[in-house]
TrEMBL record, chain B:
PROSITE patterns: ABC_TRANSPORTER_1, ABC_TRANSPORTER_2. Belongs to the ABC transporter superfamily. Ycf16 family. This is Fe-S cluster assembly ATPase SufC. SUPFAM superfamilies: P-loop containing nucleoside triphosphate hydrolases. InterPro entries: AAA+_ATPase, ABC_transporter-like_ATP-bd, ABC_transporter-like_CS, FeS-cluster_ATPase_SufC, P-loop_NTPase. Pfam families: ABC_tran (PF00005). PANTHER family: ABC TRANSPORTER I FAMILY MEMBER 6, CHLOROPLASTIC (PTHR43204). The gene is sufC. The keyword Membrane does not apply. The keyword Kinase does not apply. One of its GO terms (molecular function) is ATP hydrolysis activity. It comes from Leptolyngbya sp. NK1-12.
Length: 438, 260
């Protein structure tokens, strides 16, 4: 974006630093890349134009922004990105990521890949597909309509939105079969990839969704993903989110969840990949007696940076939230956790619990953790805690004294630490493959 | 049956050890032969638990002098896992909880690491299940314990019984029980003691470290040692434990002070 400055106030304006100029130019470049991939005519144009304006009004974040204090995006600025392209991927290439007994929806570099998808047979009142399977009314009601849509990276995604994974369970429909949304990245040059999905559960319906970000190589790219999730009255969604991008990639992901009265939402987010990752997880409880359970596991090594920023906004009486976020950090890696919980005056008799536990495996490993509870209501129960520890000599000694060598003992203890989160993943095969990556 | 020709399992000579640069063991001497049950008693801070951890090889305990010979080899040269595979077993006062690792898997890994060390083939899951089933009876544990995570959510008594179950499976040559009786109700104590008695054979040896005489009503030791200030200051038969129960430790400590 350009800044018009009249000569009259030129001498009083603050000089724009070259770093700030570089960030502004980069954001402009990202916006152009995002817009370059969209289809020419589309009913989504108004939504995209609106989002593009939101992007233009903002700046690319720096560590001077409180929300990005510990997560430095400078390395991304040095990456010359191109627009994502469609890429032919063989079924063999993704075979090891295929989960048995699921319906599978595959996107490659953000583009729908029906030839890799396997939807199976579904009840008529369940819709699984890309945006072409959604009605105009569904799109108008839900797509891009979550709170927080104006946040710069979410708006960037929307500005380039031309397709998305779409899951819609009609009223009273209980779907037992998990739906696997597989977002594949494969790039021969650094590109901007913007995966998107929209998941809607109508009243009393129930869904299990696995959102899985994978890479077929170790290339550099920037994934900027958005998942919008809507739960109507008494609906239930079990959401597993796996981020296993390339170790050279950048990943910024948004999960925005709106929960109506008596709905139940569980998110188990596991992050292994990317040289720098950020998960923005925003929960909006909009009705009474809603339940939110957030389980998180971030595993970092080398020079990785892994950031989780969550916010839970309670708004009505009798809401509950339970959050356990764990970090396992090795080498010189850096973990960040910021957990906000808002309890306004109207949210009486609510119960919010938050725990962040970190295991540091090396003296150079680092974590910055910040619970942030803003409580206005006076008759509520809110707890939070943060622990940072290392593998204890006594624990290792116990295992060694049973004949287990020191290296296996270490692995076993790391596994035991992660188990509380990994055990929440509803699919045995996925649980096992993630465990083997520890 | 202990005879003069029984094999010497453990021989400790003038052992000294530090914790955080503070001397705790100040010249331990002890000889244990096959078939023997030894009890070490003593007031808090006398170095009993330190002695057990030094024998098992805890890295925080620094040996500063003396010798420990186990079945003819220098025990102090071995890593803790090598000691375990060679037949040294320490039942912990505070066993570790390991979420996500089933008791059965844990037992099998430990058992097979010992088999491998002895040059034997590892036991597969089926054969191992049979083996464990027999051992459960010794500690009166239900088979459902095997599928639970190691010690997670176990009561104090269940944890101690689980230690004895591990001991039963691993069939150690030298079993060291570190205050296994502390915090046990009488029923759990009987089960634990009964298990230990069943596991005692003419080929192995037991070293029982305890603060209370109560355990020794159920496990009858051949020797009772009193430890104070990092050394054994008196050794007797099982009647010494009774005397300690009645008169406390002061008289032994005073006698020791006079003698030196």
């Amino acid at each position: 974006m350009s800044i018009q400055v009249s000569p009259a106030n030129l001498e009083f304006s603050k000089p724009v630093s070259s770093a700030a100029q570089a960030r502004a130019a980069y954001l402009t470049k990202l916006l152009h890349l995002a817009q370059s991939t969209v289809a020419e005519t589309s009913e989504l144009q108004a939504l995209r134009d609106h989002a593009a304006l939101r992007v233009q009004e903002q700046t690319f974040p720096s560590t001077r922004d409180e929300e990005w204090r510990f997560t430095d995006l400078s390395d991304l600025l040095a990456v010359e990105l191109a627009a994502a392209e469609r890429s032919a991927v063989t079924p063999d290439a993704i075979a090891r990521f295929v989960l048995p007994d699921t319906a599978r929806l595959v996107f490659v570099n953000g583009f729908y890949a029906p030839e890799l998808s396997d939807l199976g047979t579904f009840p008529a009142r369940l819709t699984v597909g890309n945006l072409s399977s959604a009605s105009d009314q569904q799109l108008q009601t839900y797509l891009g309509q979550q709170s927080g849509a104006e946040e710069v990276f979410t708006a960037l995604n929307t500005a380039g939105l031309s397709d998305a994974g779409f899951v819609f369970a009609a009223k009273n429909l209980v779907v037992d079969r998990p739906i696997h949304l597989l977002f594949v990245s494969t790039a021969s040059q650094p590109v901007l990839i913007q995966p998107r999905c929209l998941v809607v559960a109508e009243p009393n319906s129930s869904l299990t969704v696995i959102e899985d970000h994978i890479s077929l190589g170790e290339s550099v790219y920037f994934t900027n993903s958005v998942a919008e999730i809507w739960l109507a009255d008494n609906a239930q969604i079990t959401h597993t989110r796996i981020q296993r991008d390339s170790q050279s990639a950048f990943h910024i992901g948004k999960t925005a969840v709106s929960q109506a009265r008596s709905s139940r939402y569980t998110c188990t987010a596991v992050s292994f990949g990317a040289r720098l990752s950020r998960h923005n997880l925003n929960i909006y409880q909009t009705g009474e007696q809603t339940e939110t359970a957030l389980n998180g596991l971030t595993v970092l090594k080398g020079e990785q940076v892994g950031d989780t920023h969550s916010s839970i906004a309670l708004s009505k009486p009798y809401g509950t939230s339970r959050q356990v976020h764990k970090c396992i950090i090795d080498d010189r890696a850096h973990g960040i956790f910021n957990g906000k919980v808002f309890v306004p005056k109207a949210a009486q008799l609510t119960d919010a619990g938050q725990l962040n536990r970190t295991l540091l495996l090396s003296p150079k490993a680092r974590v910055d953790t910040k619970p942030q509870l803003e409580i206005v209501a006076d008759n509520v129960k809110c707890t939070h805690g943060a622990t940072v520890g290392q593998l204890e000599t006594d624990e290792l000694f116990y295992l060694q004294s049973r004949g287990i060598d020191a290296s296996s003992a270490r692995k076993l203890l790391v596994y035991a630490f992660a188990y509380e989160i990994l055990s929440q993943i509803p699919l045995e095969s996925l649980r096992q493959s993630l465990t083997s990556q520890l | 049956m202990i005879t003069e020709t029984s094999e010497t399992i453990l021989s400790v000579k003038d052992l000294t050890a530090n914790v955080d640069n503070t001397p705790i063991l100040k010249g331990m001497n002890l000889e244990i032969k096959a078939g023997e049950i030894h009890a070490i008693m003593g007031p808090n801070g006398s170095g009993k638990s330190t002695f057990s951890k030094v024998l098992a090889g805890h890295p925080d305990y620094e040996v500063t002098g003396g010798e420990v010979t186990y079945l003819g080899q220098n025990l102090l040269e071995l890593d803790p896992e090598e000691r375990a595979r060679s037949g040294v077993f320490l039942a912990f006062q505070y066993p570790l909880e390991i979420p996500g690792v089933s008791n059965l898997d844990f037992l099998r890994v430990a058992y097979n690491s010992k088999r491998k060390h002895a040059g034997l083939e590892e036991l597969d899951a089926f054969d191992f299940d049979d083996l464990v089933e027999q051992k459960l009876e010794i500690v009166k544990m239900d088979a459902s314990f095997l599928n639970r995570s190691v010690n997670e959510g176990f009561s104090g008594g269940e944890k101690k019984r689980n230690e004895i179950l591990q001991m039963a499976v691993l069939e150690p040559k030298l079993a060291i029980l570190d205050e296994t009786d502390s915090g046990l109700d009488i029923d759990a104590l009987r089960i634990v003691a009964n298990g230990v008695n069943q596991l005692s054979t003419p080929d192995n040896a037991m070293l029982i470290i305890t603060h209370y005489q109560r355990l020794l009503e159920y496990i009858v030791p051949d020797y009772v040692h009193v430890m104070a200030n990092g050394r054994i200051i008196r050794t007797g038969g099982k009647e010494l434990a009774l005397e300690l129960e009645e008169r406390g430790y002061d008289w032994v400590l005073e006698a020791e002070a006079v003698a030196s």
